[in-house]
């Protein structure tokens, strides 16, 4: 019997590009040792039951992949021959449904869909041979998911324990205009080193993702509380008691005391309505003060904290002169109204960033989708720096 739930094996936890340092820290904080880290993820050793814990707790991961087998395959036929030897009848229920995803770079394959079909055929043929019945398959990620990673002649086949991506945290039913992916938003907040005790101020908040992620971090409330279906639930050997025990644990560690002021403002009333709906779904609406108005009117509590902007980058033509003025005003607001705070501006446009008129003390590199972005840090001293 192939006992994946209790047998530690190679596990790859993927994330979006440039987020792996933040993912690596998260995984270590959960008590796992990192075998290696790379640009789009980390490798650890874990069982599928341990992957349940990872799926419920991680904020920055995309998929958590448990390796079944690695082998050499020069062409689709060799791939199929290797895959059909795996005891799929002990992994995927014959009366169930599964889907196949893949990352393929092999000269014999012109489309990854062809590789997916080969994987699907091997699984179905094996289960039909052993059980006399064939599971259904298709593109939906809501049941069992199998992932193929095939580079040149090296192939690996994984159970994808996550299914739908973990990088979305399940509360954004109303995305608003050009929203930031939740995993990216969390990473940018972690990059600031915010202590989760001092104020977090988010002018131009849009659909509220940054403020909501800050509230979730402050409460130690993890994304698993928003989700009741994962791919690991649809493999043979799944014990729902393990899932519900971990769910109970993450509820217990949520801290509802001594929470910091979190302020989110936007000039558009409809943006604030969307942000409030998203915050309500996330269970943190009561932790965020929402304000409608120009960003210059945003309340900045006394003392110190973090103020964070994610303004438009002006990817569309013809909006630059207006945005230049906005970025200049952002710089003035930080300088004049946020003394004692650390200021941050997330942007994909270095030319506009120059209009802020402040010298960045640090620059953190990120991607937003395919766009090369920077999180710029500004020290907003009371009086002069020397004081």
What keywords describe this structure?
single chain; 387 residues; alpha/beta; VC0802-like; Rossmann fold; 2 domains; 8-stranded mixed sheet; 7-stranded mixed sheet; 10 helices; 15 strands; 31% helix; 23% strand
The CATH architecture of the largest domain would be 3-Layer(aba) Sandwich
CATH fold name of the largest domain: Rossmann fold
**Average pLDDT metric:** 94
Poorly predicted runs: none
Number of contiguous helices: 10
**Secondary-structure class:** alpha/beta
CATH superfamily of the largest domain: Vaccinia Virus protein VP39
Describe the largest sheet.
Answer: 8 strands, mixed
Shape: elongated
Straight-line distance between termini: 69 Å
* Fraction in beta strands: 15-25%
Number of domains: 2
Element-by-element helix/strand order: EHEEHEHEHEEEHEHHEHEEHEHEE
CATH class division of the largest domain: Alpha Beta
GO molecular function: RNA binding; rRNA (guanine-N2-)-methyltransferase activity; rRNA (guanine-N7-)-methyltransferase activity
Domain THUMP: 50-161
Organism: Sphingobacterium paludis
Pfam family, one: THUMP
Overview of this structure, please?
The protein is of the alpha/beta class and 387 residues long. It has two domains: 9-160, VC0802-like (2-Layer Sandwich); 182-221 and 256-380, Vaccinia Virus protein VP39 (Rossmann fold), CATH 3.40.50. 31% of the residues lie in helices and 23% in strands. The chain contains ten helices and 15 strands. The protein has helices spanning 20-29, 48-57, 76-83, 112-131, 182-192, 209-219, 240-252, 269-282, 320-337, 350-353, and strands spanning 9-14, 36-38, 41-46, 64-72, 97-105, 136-137, 144-151, 154-160, 200-202, 262-266, 288-292, 306-309, 342-347, 362-368, 371-379. Strand 10 (262-266), helix 8 and strand 11 form a beta-alpha-beta unit. Helix 3 (76-83) packs parallel to helix 4. The mean pLDDT is 94. This is Putative N6-adenine-specific DNA methylase. Keywords: Methyltransferase, RNA-binding, Transferase. It holds the Pfam family RlmL_1st. Residues 50-161 form the THUMP domain.
């Amino acid at each position: 019997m192939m006992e994946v739930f209790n047998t530690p094996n190679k596990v790859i936890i993927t994330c979006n590009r440039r987020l792996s340092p933040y993912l690596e820290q998260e995984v270590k904080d959960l008590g796992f040792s990192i075998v290696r880290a790379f640009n789009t993820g980390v490798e650890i050793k874990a069982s599928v039951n341990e992957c349940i814990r990872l799926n419920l707790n991680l904020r920055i991961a995309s998929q958590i992949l448990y390796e079944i087998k690695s082998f050499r395959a020069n062409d689709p036929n060799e791939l199929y021959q290797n895959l059909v030897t795996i005891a799929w009848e002990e992994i995927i229920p014959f009366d169930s449904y599964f889907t196949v995803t893949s990352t393929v770079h092999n000269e014999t394959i012109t489309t990854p869909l062809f590789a997916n079909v080969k994987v699907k055929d091997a699984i179905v043929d094996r289960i039909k041979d052993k059980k006399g019945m064939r599971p259904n398959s298709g593109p939906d990620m809501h049941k069992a998911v199998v992932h193929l990673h095939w580079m040149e002649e090296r192939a690996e086949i994984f159970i994808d324990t996550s299914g739908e991506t973990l990088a979305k945290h399940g509360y954004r039913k109303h995305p608003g205009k050009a929203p930031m992916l939740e995993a990216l938003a969390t990473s940018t907040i972690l990059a600031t080193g915010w202590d989760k005790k001092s104020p977090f101020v988010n002018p131009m908040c849009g659909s509220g993702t940054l403020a909501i992620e800050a509230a979730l971090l402050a409460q130690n409330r993890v994304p698993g509380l928003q989700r009741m279906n994962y791919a690991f639930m649809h493999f043979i050997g799944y014990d729902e008691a393990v899932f519900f025990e971990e769910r109970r644990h993450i509820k217990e560690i949520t801290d509802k005391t001594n929470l910091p002021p979190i302020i989110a403002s936007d000039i558009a009333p409809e943006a604030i309505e969307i942000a409030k709906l998203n915050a309500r779904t996330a269970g943190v609406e009561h932790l965020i003060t929402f304000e409608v108005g120009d960003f210059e009117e945003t309340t900045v509590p006394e003392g110190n904290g973090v103020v964070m902007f994610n303004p438009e980058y002006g990817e569309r033509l013809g909006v630059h002169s207006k945005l230049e003025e906005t970025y200049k005003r952002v710089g003035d607001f930080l300088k004049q109204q946020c003394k004692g705070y650390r200021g941050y501006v997330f942007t994909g446009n270095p030319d506009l960033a120059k209009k802020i008129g402040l010298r960045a003390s640090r620059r953190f590199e990120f991607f937003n989708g395919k766009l090369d972005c920077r999180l710029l840090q500004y020290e907003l001293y009371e009086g002069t720096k020397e004081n």
